[in-house]
Amino acid sequence: MKQATLDHETANSGLERAIERPWFRNFITGLIIFNAIILGVLTYQDSLPHGFVQVLEVVDHAVTWIFAAEIAIKLAGYRFVFFRSGWNWFDFIVVGISLVPGAGAFSVLRALRVLRVLRLLHVVPMMRRISEALLKALPGMGAIIAVLALVTYVAAVMATNMYGDTDTEEVKQLFGDLPSSALSLFQVMTMDGWRFEVVQKVVDDGHPNAWLFFLVFIFVASFAILNLFIALVVDSLAAEQKAVLEEGIHDLEEDLEDIEEEIEDEREEASDARAEILDALKELQREVAELKSAVAGR
Q: Please, what CATH class does the domain formed by 14-123 belong to?
């Protein structure tokens, strides 16, 4: 038996061909969405009838075993090739966690069942492209996070030295030590209540020009560095879209070459047929000329 492939366009066995059929993927996609709805409804189980909750629990367990059967079928079809894909590893781990009994020491795993919904990230083609683009942007995000952490650290040290030595309890909680200052500056960076919950308290504590420090931090950390995240993601998505377009253009060029070869073959066949017809016509003309000569001789 030939080794299976993860390419949806080729299949080396009947089982692999069945796994890669559109109806199978659509069925799993619909089941994931259905299971997501059930898990959302179960968050209201305290206000729902007990019998209805039990039915939903049974359905949820049934869906879990269907997912387990799907993984088993893929393992039988792909065998060790299955583990060459990171997404397959993700499916394997998530479904495995779902099979662990959610009781006792493993009760926290019960909440992790919702991770199965994340399988949509690679089952749906468009979501898969976006997810892969985000994953490709992670190395660049790491560099941006490092720069942001450095700027926050420097600002936190400055804020602790400038505003931490105070008798005002509220300001002391905000900038009394380095971790508190970093957390407060993170709040300022997200611009969540930064004016009245942070800046105004520092200004009222005897630092009328403190707003200037926080505005500079906002411009640097929020408007400049944080926007680099958006630029990086947009650039990664654009690169992914460009790759998809180039792949589509390459496929079209290959199709065009195949069509041109077919047209050329048809032209050669037509030319050969025309030559044969002309030869047959000349032979017929020669035979007619011989018949005319024979008739004239009589």
A: mainly alpha
Cβ atoms of 71 and 91 closer than 8 Å: yes
Question: Domain boundaries in the chain?
Answer: 14-123, 132-249
Answer yes or no: is pLDDT of 245 > 50: yes
The answer to whether 74 and 82 have CB atoms below 8 angstroms apart is yes
Confidence of residue 297 (pLDDT cuts 50, 70, 90): low
Question: CA-to-CA distance for 224 and 194, rounded, in angstroms?
Answer: 18
Query: 254: which 2 tokens?
Result: 């290959």
- Residue 16 CA to residue 210 CA, distance in Å, equals 66
Domain 132-249, CATH among 3.40.190.10, 1.10.287.70, 1.10.10.10, 1.20.1510.10: 1.10.287.70
* The total number of residues written for the chain in this structure: 298
Task: Answer whether 123's CB lies under 8 Å from 24's CB.
Answer: no
- One-letter amino acid identity for 9? E
Q: What is the pLDDT of residues 30-84, one digit of tens each?
A: 888 888 888 888 888 888 888 888 898 888 888 888 888 888 888 887 877 888 8
- Retrieve residue 41's tokens: 């409804």
What is the full DSSP assignment across 258-272? HHHHHHHHHHHHHHH
Helix-helix angle 178-190:210-217, to 10 degrees: 70
What count of other Cβ atoms lies within 10 Å of the Cβ of residue 187?
14
Q: Which two tokens stand for residue 249?
A: 């253009």
Residue 77 pLDDT: 79
Q: What is the pLDDT of residue 103?
A: 47
Q: Which of 22, 16, 242 shows the shortest CA–CA distance to 125? A: 22
Q: Helices 210-217 & 125-163, crossing angle to 10 degrees?
A: 160
